Amino acid sequence: MNLALNSDSLVQRGLKLSHLRLLAALAETGQLSLAADRLTIAQPAASRLLAEVERIVGAPVHSRTGRGMTLTAIGSTLALRAQRVQTELRDAARDIAEVAAGEIGHIRIGSVTGPAIDRVLPVLRAARIAAPRVTAEVTVAPSDILCDQLLAGKLDFVIGRLPQDSTHALFDMTPIAAEPVSLVVRRAHPLAHRSPLTAAALLDFDWLLPPADSILTRAVLARLRAHGLPAPPQRLSTASFLLIFALLQQSNAIAPLARAVAETFVQGPMAAYVLLDIDLGIEVEAFGLITRAGAILPPVAARIAAEIQMVTNL
Question: Mean pLDDT across the chain, nearest whole number?
Answer without folding.
Answer: 89
